[in-house]
Amino acid sequence: METPLLPRESGQFVAERSRDVFVEEEGVQKVAEMLYTLRHSDCLTASGWKMANPLAPALNWVFVVDTMNFSFWPENESQQCEVTYKGTMYTGYMTLCAAITRAMEEGIPITDPKYFSQMSVEELGQVLRSDNETPMPMLQERHKVLTEGGRVLLEHGGSFRTFISQAGNDARKMVELIVEKIPSYRDEAVYEGKRISLYKRAQILVADFWGVMEARGEGDIINMDWLTMFADYRVPQALVYLGALRYSDTLMQILKNGELLCSGDRREVEIRGCSIWSVELIQDRLCKLLQERDGETCNITSAIIDFYLWLYAKQHHKEMAHIPIHHTRCIYY
Asked: Do you know which Pfam families this protein is assigned to (predicted)?
């Protein structure tokens, strides 16, 4: 079986052949200029990661959350799964973070691989319980990937730290290790006859590992610039809103009708692949601006741009409501 193209090469491959999603030169420039004005602000540093992950306490917590970090969109916008933690009500991805942190406070050893590798679906259902009638989607799938991930950690020293240390301090090797050892992280597809990879969760797991280590003053991980953006359903919406991506009228109509796209569907792969490539071009343009205008080397990576755009999408969700997000129920994002 052929080795899939890496995420960056996959993004370029898709963008050059895409029929319904287009990377817009002008929008790319506009977003690069916008980020340039923020070049000295905290939102384009490791602190930006902290703003996106205010509840992240430890490495095993990060592993548990990222292993189940997929598919939070509600069937019906007015029926969101909600979890309240310390007086704050969370929705979306943050419901998962809040639920795991709540479980820890309730004395459930949810971050111990010995426990979560063999917990029952019912136990996980209790941990992920919602405060309203809408449960968190895909409980069976979350249970399957979490217990599988736990078993892999137990085979490799019993913690995420010992598992990931096999890759040294190299972000690329970390992604490769995760994808090789843990099946649920193999986010791959076939596009125009070519095997490609998007590796959203594997890359975000490495970026989150870096964020925690950075917060501890131990973030000397090399090859962070190898990571691309994390192709999900929120960031593409922000990229369309900002003009860096454009959907064909046909695709826009399909999404507005709320049609589901299967994982691996050509249009779904185009949305994700073109998102990756547009952020690569934005990052490249931003580095040129820093070099030309300030004579500075750029250390703002695609991953940092992703953290910023993800938060931007959350903060501007009302203004962006007219741009539909694509809906794909799968374990990859």
From this structure: Q_salvage
What is the DSSP code (8-state) at residue 81?
A: -
In a domain, 92, yes or no: yes
Question: Does residue 151 belong to any structural domain of this protein?
Answer: yes
227 lies in some domain: yes
Instruction: List beta partners, residue 190.
Output: 195
The single-letter DSSP state of residue 212 is H
Number of structural domains the chain divides into: 1
C-alpha 101: how far from chain center: 19
Q: How many CB atoms lie within 10 A of CB 2?
A: 7
Can you give the residue range of the structural domain that contains 120? Answer: 7-316
Nearest to 63 by CA among 206, 257, 251: 206
Which stretches within the chain are classed as H helix?
A: 7-17, 25-37, 46-52, 59-67, 93-105, 113-116, 121-127, 139-155, 160-164, 171-181, 200-215, 234-241, 249-256, 266-289, 302-315
C-alpha angle 333/46/185, rounded to 5°?
A: 25
Residue 332 domain flag = no
- Residues carrying an active site annotation: 232
Query: What's the pLDDT tens digit per position in 24-78?
Result: 999 999 999 999 999 999 888 877 666 666 676 789 999 999 999 999 998 887 8
Condensed to tens digits (0 to 9), the pLDDT of residues 154-196 reads 999 999 999 999 999 999 999 999 999 999 999 999 999 999 9
